[in-house]
Write a structure and sequence with these properties.
Two copies of one chain form a homodimer. The first copy, chain A, is an alpha+beta fold. In chain A, 29% of the residues lie in helices and 24% in strands. Chain A contains 18 helices and 23 strands. Chains A and B meet through helix 3, helix 4, strand 6, strand 7 and strand 8 of A and helix 3, helix 4, strand 6, strand 7 and strand 8 of B. Strand 23 of chain A pairs antiparallel with strand 23 of chain B, so a sheet runs across the interface.
Amino acid sequence: MYRTHTCGELRLSDKGKKVCLAGWVQKSRKLGGMTFIDLRDRYGITQLVVRADAAPELASVAEKLGREFVIQARGEVLERESKNPKLPTGDIEIQLESINILNRSVTPPFTIEENSDGGEEIRARYRYLDLRRPPLQRALALRHRLAQEVRNYLDAQGFMEIETPYLIKSTPEGARDFVVPSRMNPGQFYALPQSPQTFKQLLMVAGYDRYFQIVRCFRDEDLRADRQPEFTQIDCEMSFVEQEDVLNTFEGMMRQMFHNALGVDIANPIPRMDWYTAMDRYGSDKPDIRFGMEIHDITSLVKGCGFSVFDSSEYIGAIAVEGCGEYTRKQLDELTDWVKRPQVGAKGLVYIKIAHDGSIKSSVDKFYTAEQLQELVKTCEAKAGDLVLVLCGAKRKTQTQLGVLRIEMGNRLGLRDPKVFAPLWIVDFPLLEWSEEDQRFYAMHHPFTAPKPEHEALFYSDRKEDLEKVCANAYDFVLNGTELGGGSIRIHDAAMQSRMFDVLGISKEDAEYKFGFIINAFKFGAPPHGGLAFGFDRVCALFGGQETIRDYIAFPKNNQGRDVMIDSPSLIDQVQMDELCLKSTAGDKK
Amino acid sequence: MYRTHTCGELRLSDKGKKVCLAGWVQKSRKLGGMTFIDLRDRYGITQLVVRADAAPELASVAEKLGREFVIQARGEVLERESKNPKLPTGDIEIQLESINILNRSVTPPFTIEENSDGGEEIRARYRYLDLRRPPLQRALALRHRLAQEVRNYLDAQGFMEIETPYLIKSTPEGARDFVVPSRMNPGQFYALPQSPQTFKQLLMVAGYDRYFQIVRCFRDEDLRADRQPEFTQIDCEMSFVEQEDVLNTFEGMMRQMFHNALGVDIANPIPRMDWYTAMDRYGSDKPDIRFGMEIHDITSLVKGCGFSVFDSSEYIGAIAVEGCGEYTRKQLDELTDWVKRPQVGAKGLVYIKIAHDGSIKSSVDKFYTAEQLQELVKTCEAKAGDLVLVLCGAKRKTQTQLGVLRIEMGNRLGLRDPKVFAPLWIVDFPLLEWSEEDQRFYAMHHPFTAPKPEHEALFYSDRKEDLEKVCANAYDFVLNGTELGGGSIRIHDAAMQSRMFDVLGISKEDAEYKFGFIINAFKFGAPPHGGLAFGFDRVCALFGGQETIRDYIAFPKNNQGRDVMIDSPSLIDQVQMDELCLKSTAGDKK
C-alpha cells in the first residue's frame, strides 16, 4: 500500500502518529515561508504542511507541485492552530517529512471543485476529470449504496438475482431494438433487450418464485432530454402473489432504501391513489403530492352562462395558486403565453384574482355575477390573496394541461423541495385504451396484464363502455411527480390471455407469430405471478435530490447517443463489415 | 398470497396447523383408496394426502391432477406414519381439505427430476422446464449466493460497484468485437465490451480508488466447447496498491466465498507459485495441485546414451503414475495413441514399469543399464508398483504435453475430487513473449502491465536475453487446474509506458491511434493502480463441483452461438435494415 490512511480518515485522536497519505493535490499555497497543500482522495481532503525550516529538498519539491499531481506524503499528525470546522479532518494537519511525486498532471481544462468552471461539453469530453468532482463522487457513491440496499433487502426476502441474456431476439412490437449482427449466422441478428420481461416471466414458469436483477436495458429511441439509449432497471417478479403482496414487498424495499441510504423515514404506509383520482385531482398519472393546489372541476358552475368558450367545452377545471392574487397584468400575460406553448397546448387562460381584502377580479367578470365567482372561488378552496387559474376543453386533455400548470406554479412558488420525499402508489389503471384513430383497444400496460379480479365479468362483456371500465391489476410507484417504476399482475390463464388477444383485435395467427414463444411456455403450468421494474438511474437521481440522471451514470451518452469521451459510435473497418456480411448504405444517394 | 407456507418449510413442530401450499405436482399416486401428491416448489417437496373418505369432489379433482399442474392446496399438517428421512419435510404430510387448480400443464417433453430422461437438445429448447430440475435450481441459487458474497465482501472493503457502458467503441486489437449499428449515426457502430478494462482504469484516474462490477462481457469468437459469446466477470481495480495488496484482498474474498457459500475453509494463506515453477513441475500455468505426480526433468540422466530420440531432444521429462506398474501392453498402446492425438501432440511415449517386486521393465531397456533406470526411477520418486511415463522434445512444449498427460492420469486414477478445493496464485509471469515468427516481442498479459519493480533495470536493457527475463507484476488465480481469474499492476508512468511501446515495436503514431484515448487520460495524474477479473460463470461451476458452465447460466447459448429456446439470432425486417442503413450480403455470390 502506498498509504497508511486515506485523506478522509485522520482526526485529533490520531495526533502524534506518523502517517503516509496518497492522493491528488487539490491546491498548494505559500504562506509566511510555509507551504500548505490540500491533498484529496475519494474519502476526503487533508491539509499537509511543509514548515519554513523544512529540508531544502522537501521545500523545493513542495513548491513545484501542480494541481492534480499525484503524491505520496509522509509526516506526523499535528493539531491545527486554525481549525476548519467544515472538514471532518479540519482539526488536524500533517507536518511533512517527505513527498514522493507518483505522477505529474498537465493543467486540467477546468477546475476540479464542488462547482466547476467547465462547460458541459468539455466536462463530457474529459469525463474522467469531471468524475473527480465531489458532486459526482457523491452521486456514484449513493448509486452504489442504493444498489447494495436493493440487493440486501431482496436477498433477505428470498429473491434470487438471476442474470438474463443480453443477446436476445428482436421483437416485432414495442420500441425500436438495438440489433447485433451475428457473424456465425450470416444475415441474422441478435437484439439487445429493452427489458428482461419475457425472461423473467419464463423464470416464473421455471419455478424460481422470486426473481430480481439490476440489469441494463436498451432502447433505440430518438432521445428526449434526459433519456439514455442504455439504462438500468431494478427488475423483479414474484409467483403466487396478488397485487397487495407486490405492493407491500416493494414498499418495504423503498422504505429500507430511504432509511438506510438517506436516514429518511417515508410515509408508512405509502399512500395509494387510483388512476382516475390522480387524473381528476392532479391532472397526471404521476402526481407530485408534496403540495396541494389540486384541480377542481368547475364545469357545472361555469358552463352555460353565456361565455361561449366555456359553453362549448366538455370540461372546465381550475387550480388555486396560493398568495399570487396580486399578479400583475404582465405576469398573467406571461403565464397565458406559457400555457399556450405547444408543450402545454392550452388555447388560453382565465384567471380570477382574489385581493387581500377579498375582492375578486377576473378576466371573465362580464359573464358571471359576483356570487357565481364567489362560489367558484369557494369550490377551488381559494382564499384572500390567491389566484385561481382556469383551463377548459376536452376533459383528460385539459386536466393534463392543468397538471402541467400546477407543477410549474409549484416550481415557481418553491413548493417542490428535493429534500422532501412524497412517495405514492398509483393503482387501478384502466386495462384498455380506446384509439379513436384505429377504432380498436390497445393495452395500457402490455397485453399480459391481468384485469382486476372484480372486473372479470366486465372484461368478458362485448360492450365497449364495459371494456373501458375494466381496471387492471397494474401499479406505478411515483415519487415527487416522477414515475420511478411500475408493473402488474400478469395473466396466467390461457383462456383469459386468448380473450385479451380477442379484445385487442389480435388474431390467433398474429398472437402466435408475435408471442408464440411465451404462450407455448405458459402451457406447461404457469403459476400466478406479477412483478414490477424500477428505473434505477432515476431512482438514484431522485434520492440524490436531482432531476437529471446524467450525473448518476458514470459514463453517459449525449442527446445524439454519442459518448464524446471515447468518441463512439465510430466507423469499423472493412474486414469486420465483410465478416459480418454487411454493407453500409449510409453514403448512398437515396 | 396464494400460500401460507412454501413446500420446503413445514416440520413436525407445525403439526396440527391449517396451511395452504401452492406449487407444481411432481407426482400423484393412488394407494389403498388414498391419493398421495408430491407438491414441489423452489423450496422443496411436501407430501399431500387425500384420504379415502374425503369428499367426492375433492377426490375427483385429486385424481385428475397431471404432472406439472399448478395447484393451491389447503389442509392440516399431520405426522407421517412412514417418514421419509431424505426430505426435510419428510416427517409430515398435509391432509387435504381442498384443491384449487391454478393452471394445467400439457405433458412435459422430458421428466423433471434430479436426472432427466431428456436429451441435451430438447432440454435446451424447453430450457424453462429444464430449469425446474433441482440440479439447475441449486446451480442458480449458488450463483446468486456467490454474487451476494462478492458484493458484501467488496462493499465492506470500501469497493464501489460502478456500472460501465455496454455501448462502447470498437478497438482494433484483441479478440473480435460484437458491434451494434447506430441508427442515429448512420454507418457508425458501437461495440459491446470484451471487458471494462479501459473504463476501470479511467475510474482509477478519476479517483474512485476501489472499483468493482459483476458485469457481462462479449467476445465474438469461434466457440470452443464450454465458451459463451456473453459471459460474466467479477471485475476489480484498486489504486495506490502493490501486487501484495491485490493478492491479499482477493484471497480474502475467495476465502469468504468458500466459507459462507460452501462452509469450506480453503488454505490460509493460499499457496503461491511462480510461473517458471508451474511450468517446470506441472507443465501448466494453471496446475491442479490436488494431487502430486509432478514432472521431473530427466534430461541430464538419459540424454547422450545412444537413444537417438532422446539424444536429439532439448528436454526429456517424466511423471510417475502411482499404482500403474502393472499396465498391460494394450493399456500402454492406448496411452501412446492418446498422447499422439493432435490435441496432445507428442511424438511417442516411453514407459518404465516398476513391478511390485521392484523389478523394472521399460520400452528403452536396451539403451540403458539397470542402474541408469534405477536412478531415473529414483529421480521421478516412483516406487514399486508405479509407472513412469516419459516424453521428450522442445522444453516448454514437452512440459505442456506432460502436463496434459498428468491431468489425464489424475482423472483416470480419480485424484481430482470436485469436492476438494486447492486454490493457488500463479505469480511472476514473464512480461514479454518473443515471437520467432514475427521476430518481435508481444505482451504476455497486455501492454499496460507493469514489470516487477526489481526487474526495471532489465526492462530498460537492449538485450533480448535480458528482456526475456523480465517478470511482470501479473498474477492468476487458479483452482483445481482451472484459471478462474487474473490481473496485473498497471503501468502508470508515461516514460515506462512509452518504453513498453518501444519494446513491443509499436510506433508513437500507432500507440496514439490504438491507445491514444487512455494515454491522454493518463496525463492528468494517474495513480499507481492494479486489479484483476474473475470469470464468474466458471467460479460458480467450480464452486458447484462441475466442470461445465452451462448449468450455471440461466439461458445459455449453444456452440453455434444460438439460443435454441427463443430461436435467436434471427432475420430482422427490411424496415429495420433500412433505418440502420445496412444491406446484408449474406446471400450474395462471392
